[in-house]
Amino acid sequence: MIDTAPDLERLRGGAPPRNHDARTIAALTSNPGCARRGVLDAAGVDKDAVARELGFPAPFGQSQFAITRGNAFEAQVKADGGAELLALLRDHLGLDVPEVAYDDLEVVAGDEGRELRHSRTRRLIARALETGAGTLFDHPLLRLEIAGSPAYLEPDVIAFQLAGRLHVIEIKSFAVVDGQAEPEQVAAAARQAAVYVLALRRLVAELGHDPERVSHEVILVCPENFSNRPTATPIDVRPQLAVLGRQLARLTRVDELLAELPDDLTFEPGATLAASVRTVKARYAPECISGCEMALFCRDEARACGETGALGRSVRDDLGGIDTIGTALALADGSLAPSDDLAETAEQLRAASRLRAEALRGGV
Amino acid sequence: MSALSSLARLEAAAAGVAQPLATVRHCHVSDRPLVLVPLKLAGEAAAPLAVMVGGEPDDPTTLIVPQPRNRDLRFAFASALAKIVLNHIEAGRGAVEELPPGKDGEERIRYGDAPQLLVPNLGGVAFLRLLGRSTRFRSTEGPYAVDAAVPVFGRWLTWFADRHDHPGSSLMGAMTQLLRLHWATGQSSLEDGNLAALLGWIDPPDGLDGPAAAARAEDPVVSPPAGPATDPTFDNEVLAPAIAAYDRSGPGSAAEERLRAALTSQLAPTWDLMWRAVGLLRALPEGASVRGRWERDRDAFTYYHQTFGEAYPQPRRDPPVRAARRLHDLERAQDAYDAQRAFDDPLVMAEHRLAGQAFGGVVTDCDPTRLDETGKRPKLRPHLRVSTADPVRLDVGTTVCSAARPALKGRIVELGDGGVLLELTGGMGRKLTPEPGAVPRVGDRVCFTSLTDGSFGAAKFPDRENTPWTHGGPPEEYAPTEDDADEDWS
Amino acid sequence: MSRAPGVPTPDELETRITELRAAVRRAMATGDRGTARELRAELRAAERAWDDAVLGDDAHERGGRRASPPVRERAHQALTLLGAPAAPKLVSSVYAAFFPGEIPGARLSSLRRDEERSFRAAPYTRPYYLCAALTADALAPARGLLAVSTWPLEQRIVGPLSLRTDFLTAAIRLAEHTAGLGTPSPETRRLLRRFAYAIPGAMTGTAGTVDPAALAEGARAELDVHRETDRRHRESAARRARDRLHDAERLFGRRPRPVRGIAAKGKRATKGKTDR
Description:
The structure holds three protein chains of three kinds.
Chain A: H1 5-11, H2 22-27, H3 35-43, H4 47-53, H5 64-93, E1 102-104, H6 114-131, E2 136-138, E3 142-146, E4 149-153, E5 157-162, E6 165-171, H7 183-206, E7 217-223, E8 230-236, H8 238-251, H9 254-259, H10 273-279, H11 295-304, H12 313-318, H13 325-332, H14 343-361
Parallel strand pairs in A: 1-2, 6-7
Antiparallel strand pairs in A: 2-5, 3-4, 5-6, 7-8
Helix pairs in contact in A: 7-8, 13-14
Chain B: H1 3-15, E1 19-20, E2 34-40, E3 48-54, E4 61-64, H2 71-91, E5 96-99, E6 108-111, E7 117-119, H3 122-135, H4 149-164, E8 172-174, H5 175-182, E9 183-184, H6 189-192, H7 195-202, H8 210-217, H9 232-249, H10 254-283, H11 290-307, H12 320-344, H13 346-354, E10 358-367, E11 371-372, E12 379-380, E13 383-387, E14 399-402, E15 409-416, E16 419-426, E17 445-449, H14 482-486
Parallel strand pairs in B: 2-7, 7-8
Antiparallel strand pairs in B: 1-9, 2-3, 3-4, 5-6, 10-13, 10-17, 11-12, 13-16, 14-15, 14-17, 15-16
Helix pairs in contact in B: 2-4, 3-4, 7-8, 9-10, 12-13
Chain C: H1 10-29, H2 33-55, H3 71-82, H4 88-98, H5 105-109, H6 111-121, E1 130-131, E2 134-135, E3 147-148, E4 157-158, H7 162-179, H8 186-197, H9 212-244, H10 247-252, H11 261-264
Parallel strand pairs in C: 2-4
Antiparallel strand pairs in C: 1-3
Helix pairs in contact in C: 1-2, 3-4, 4-8, 7-8, 7-9
Organism (chain C): Actinomadura spongiicola
Protein name (chain C): DUF2786 domain-containing protein
Region (Disordered) (chain C): 226-276
């Protein structure tokens, strides 16, 4: 493999790489076909800053009410040695009464240094795997290799050891009402939790144990109904793990993406930034808006080019994969003769166009 | 989505204005709908923040919860909103219609009208559903007593939200959904979720085109979101300080008025959009089967209203047999609704023509008095040849009916180059010569389809006592418990 | 009342407030925090001016504070009742449940630092200090826990099991205290319910009510399971602390070792606080 680090540093324009968190890593899996995103993420470019510089700031504000609620619920569940959490685990997973050990990995000897914290996480997880000591490990500091460089991950989760197996516990403040939660929120939580499971598995493997000792079942802790009382729901994250694994493997092949880019390309702020960004092809879809900082810039570009994909993936699929609105309309009204591979699509479009016109004229 | 509606999106994008997806209106719009624009506090499941509600565009009532974390204030809000909604329900039923007695001779009635609730989007429906869930089990006595109207309101909200799931029901409408049924915009369906942007494409304000109006609608400072979620910068920069000021000054203070003004500023633009949208929908001619579907809605409303006093609040979860029956009902309703829309609207039928399940064209040949004499008695079986350019995907032998007059039935005899030969089998009268005008003539434009107007046999489901063990066996009768009543409402 | 020239009318202020709000939100949306900060200051000033013009005295806090003991004294009372190190949140719930008045949470968070400053300036001049609990392995201050300096060192050590044993100890002491009080207040009932919910066998009464005797019994039963192991951890850690730490460290924990500037900088960048 080629060492891509110097290239990536140049792409960042000398700025330090942006740290990944579970959200950004999980987001990598949502649009795997986008080269622009692939390159920016692999290089650790601060996409938020780039988007702002380009005049398309990402609309990702968070309400302080939501933040406060989230922090308060998490603090409550973890309070007093995880008293509420232990009650839940005893009820749902048959945790034995003696299993109450709580290790706080957030601070080591009053120090929050990452190396120190990570090594303490390693030490305690190793001990847990060998002797079964320890039950709840709060704020483990994990590490995951992203495109060839290590990213520290600090999950707001607890690693939970039961009978020699580790589980990830994720605390979220969205409500589970009568056993149901909003599917998008559960899906997002599952994607994030999968990142932690993967990172924990890598750690377990490094320690010389079977990575399967980290369960693919994560425990989601949410408020129940309209109360503050927590409830636990197990979620199988195997599908998310599979996607994530593929996606990370793909990221390590960023050298291939780089090979096709100009040697002097950089995403440094400045007059040429927009042109630089455009050098790398995007694959915009409306779903990007909820996950990628660059989305509004890419949408503007896609609209300006009249891309059918800007109207939605299903529209593009309905049109047999025709890329631009102009081409599709020209095929529909017959002003453009289709190439052989588009003959069938064109016929469909002409029929659609004729039927629409007929119905709108008031014919039967 | 289909190639047809996707094409409409392209046309909209090219034209800079929305394009029709329907030639008639497929939903009922009440003369006096109750419009509700609810807002909730971010981060909470169903903590109401404010609502603008009313049955007339120039007479909205604004209710707010000045401190959304205060339980008493929330229930005061629920009680005030309950009164408005329950009033609307009682006022909305109109005169009683006597119906012919049912099969077993029991008396049947139907209210002459039913209440209709309109909210901006699906988020609004989901919020009212949760508000219903969080209020219907409340006790009106004991330590956590609430106003008597609150649990009644909760049951009605639950019922409305449940009817919303029923395809073709117009009792509770989400405006973005209703508009999207009739227009295609030049943006994605995700972006159509923004009511202001959607309306911007359909009916751009003066001097703007669709894209410009939609872009304006995406700026939350100019165009507040239609809820129930508020814009985060509004929360952080306006709402939070205003709530803090209220906390310091208390009820009846100017701080409360300021908070009310801030929330009203977030609600009023959506309120206006809702009524503009109501106007746009009203301007469309009503589809032929809308009346019949509204009659089903009135039946459902009559039944629930009549039995309200005897029934318990809806359970937290449906028992298995009920859930299966409900699913079956919804599927049937969906099929019937899809078919009815196609019969009502040539533009919807065009989708089925494009899919090959219907065909249209000109009658080129016709033998209106043809008799089939192979049986004991001769039968009237006219032949009709229709030339069509449609991509027909029906087999010989398929039964089809006329889109214009579904009673006219036929069977496909021959499929060939640009034409279909039909043998008409019914809907022409009882004699051996067809009723005048029943059989199309040469040169007439016709459309036939394999769709049927959705009459299916009712499926058999076990009684609740016979719930199979695979589904947990017979469920216990659900009765609300004290726990339900003192469940926190965070 | 005539208005001095140049003083804006409430209407003008209202307009100004609306404009400033929009401007602040725009600045935040584009990530321009500096501008947002300046605009926000202007906005608050305009709001204050509006308050003064329209609300008059109503805007300012009404009524004087009722005389109540200083925060450190109140915290000391609550902790003494608990008998174990506790997080500020628990300290203030206990105070609200058993004592008149309350302890504002924000005041507690800075308490330990103030106490340490006072101790270092003039050691042992106060009869007690509100100090730290010490982690068993590193003898560092345990995150977010308050303790009382006059407790035996063992009582202030936090090993892996100690958060649980402290929780159970507190449950027993609060239950016993409640039993001697007569009818408990709603705050007290709520607090006991929180404990009972998290302790096996402690929730025996009908929904929503807690029998203090059952709570104490449940807590004692579980405490018996953990006590010995926990005691061993505490004693060995306390021995180490006595051997190695000087007085201030023994109360407020070992200071973090000096870290390289780089490692400390941006150390919370990956913190997942924005995850939800």
